[in-house]
Amino acid sequence: FRYLKWIVSPASAYFFGNEQRENAVQLEHVTFTGPVLDDGDLLARLPANLAGLLRQINGFIQFQGGLHVRGACREPVWHSLRDAWDGEAAFWRLYPAVHQADIPFAEDCMGDQFLLREGVTHKLAAETGEVESLGVGLREFFESVAADPVEFLSLHPLLQYQQDGGQLEPGQLL
Questions:
Q1: What span, in angstroms and rounded, lies between the C-alpha atoms of 167 and 174?
Q2: Of 8, 90, 121, 151, which has the fewest Cβ atoms less than 10 A away?
Q3: How far apart are CA 133 and CA 120, in angstroms?
Q4: How confident is the model at residue 114 (pLDDT cuts 50, 70, 90)?
Q5: Which residues lie closer than 8 Å to 125 by C-beta, 6 or more apart?
Q6: Are the beta carbons of 27 and 56 closer than 8 angstroms?
């Protein structure tokens, strides 16, 4: 993190679904939080752990663009989980390896997508269209991000961009 100058919000604890608060996951370096939840119908379609998270924080950006977790909202479109999942440019429509049931809940700074497929997190390489299982659930995904965001999310290009004076605005990718 030596080159990063995150605009840091205080660390906040969030829990998934019906988990106990003592099992909360800490979210640090949050630089954007989503608007008020306005797509309650979408929550009914989501796994309980993701719906529970979005009820607490309706999507967010960490590490000044390093990770974007989409929210249950209709606007802005770039933040809308519904648009990424069901919209005209939904990922399952663009990439043959993505299933219609895959939930594109997040993306990294390069536009690679994180999908929930039957409770397991997968990564869609946007450039090649390949989908790879990360072998972890949603909670473990966020624990891995918290433990080593630079390596787990491959943030090296973002670090270089920031070192060169660049700054991503919400909704922008490298």
A1: 10
A2: 151
A3: 7
A4: very high
A5: 112, 131, 132
A6: no
Compute the residue count for the chain.
Answer: 174
Is 73 strand, coil or helix? coil
Q: How far is Cα 114 from Cα 2, in angstroms, rounded to an integer?
A: 26
Strands 67-69 and 103-108 come out as antiparallel
Amino acid occupying residue 8: V
Token pair 């590490």 in the structure block, residue: 63
Q: Are 88 and 101 in contact (CB under 8 A)?
A: no
For every residue of 54-66, DSSP letters joined together read HHHS--EEEGGGT
Quick one: what percent of the chain has pLDDT higher than 70? 86
Where do we find the tokens 């790879």?
132
Query: How does pLDDT run across 129-151, given as a tens digit for each residue?
Result: 999 999 999 999 999 999 999 99
